[in-house]
Amino acid sequence: MKPLDKKIYLASKSPRRRELLRQVGVDFELLSLRSDPGRGVDVSEDVHSSEAALAYVARVAREKGAFAWKVLHLRRMALRPVLSADTTVTIDGEILGKPESPNEAVAMLERLSGRTHQVLTSVALHYTDVEEQITQVSNVRFAKLSPATIKAYCATSEPYDKAGAYGIQGLAALFIEHIEGSHSGIMGLPVFETAQLLQKTGIKVL
Questions:
Q1: Annotated catalytic sites, by residue?
Q2: Which of 74, 102, 118, 139 could lock 180 by a disulfide, CB 3.0 to 4.6 Å apart?
Q3: pLDDT tens readout for residues 79-123
């Protein structure tokens, strides 16, 4: 079933994802999910015991989309495709989430310094009889970072709402020697893969 218009719902609070969708001309309406632990969350982002990074990021993206699809029905909103996504950073098989303190951000960046890590972004699409998902993996190599550089970066606001304590679209672009994969995927929404998913519901990006 094709949507009556070309608009989608974006089940994400990420400003980077909004920016990337606008960049490629996708019309969307925000469908924000609660993510404040103090007020309750709609979809838990806790890592399950022994859960690998690939399974984790795919599960969270899928659960966000499934919950948002239920919300549409409960609120009797117009039915349109729901796009959801989740991004995580992993190194040595360990998931690095969003740092909760400057000390945690420093520790993450010290671990990434001079090494290659992986950024995983999973994108899920829900719409009537369509449930599609794709996960994009990029390798990112950091230069060796001095303690002074890490301290200066962690004194900014950048690290604290991003997995792995950095954002490629900000000052941390100075740290990156090489990427293998998708620049937009590292930002939080792989544009190429997302366009492929949207086409499955009849929405052409270009």
A1: 86
A2: 139
A3: 999 999 999 999 999 999 999 999 999 999 999 999 999 999 999
